[in-house]
Amino acid sequence: MGQFHAYKNPNPTTRDRYPYLLDIQSDLLSGLRTTIVIPLSPAKTVASISMSRLNPVFNLDGENLTAMTQDIAGVDRNQLGTQSYDLSSYRSDIIAAVDFVLSGI
After folding, report:
1. Which site among 9, 18, 46, 73 is 20 to 30 Å from 63 CA-CA?
2. DSSP 8-state assignment for residue 35
3. What is the number of structural domains in the chain?
4. CATH number, position 58
5. Closest among 39, 32, 44 to 77, alpha carbons compared
6. What is the C-alpha separation between 31 and 70, in angstroms, rounded?
7. pLDDT digits over 10-64, tens only?
8. What pLDDT score does 47 carry?
9. CA distance linking residue 95 with residue 4, whole number of Å
10. Backbone dihedral angles phi then psi of residue 31, each to the nearest 5 degrees
């Protein structure tokens, strides 16, 4: 498991809306049972409600996915699916979105 890695959403109930979960928790806390994730949604389904700073868009194998930062959640690490993408190159965009949620700046 790693910070800024996207995992396939194993939950069949939410998988269509959120096909991936982006782990944003520091690796220093890897011993905890839970981790903090940002759900990723297909950009075409959330375009009307997204804000560029709050909801960065990532292109994963030709599909644009939007980080639904306002939907941050804690999940049990054992419930994360398969690690699929390393989004650490978007670190500054992800941290800016989280900061926007927390401070409005």
Report:
1. 73
2. E
3. 1
4. 2.30.30.110
5. 32
6. 25
7. 999 999 999 999 999 998 998 899 999 999 999 999 988 778 899 999 999 899 9
8. 80
9. 10
10. -80, -10
Asked if the model's pLDDT at residue 1 lies above 80, the reply is no
Q: 21 and 6 in contact (C-beta within 8 Å)?
A: yes
- Rounded distance, CA 64 to CA 78, Å? 27
Domain of residue 74: give its range.
Answer: 5-103
Q: Torsion angle of alpha carbons 56, 62, 63, 67, nearest 10°? A: -20
Distance, CA of 70 to CA of 50 (rounded, Å): 10
Tokens 């690796």 label which residue?
A: 27
Q: Which segments within 1-105 are labelled E, that is strand?
A: 5-8, 20-23, 34-42, 57-60, 63-67, 73-76, 83-86
Which residue, chain included where needed, has tokens 């049990």?
A: 76
2-6 mean pLDDT: 93
Q: Which pLDDT value is given to residue 104?
A: 87
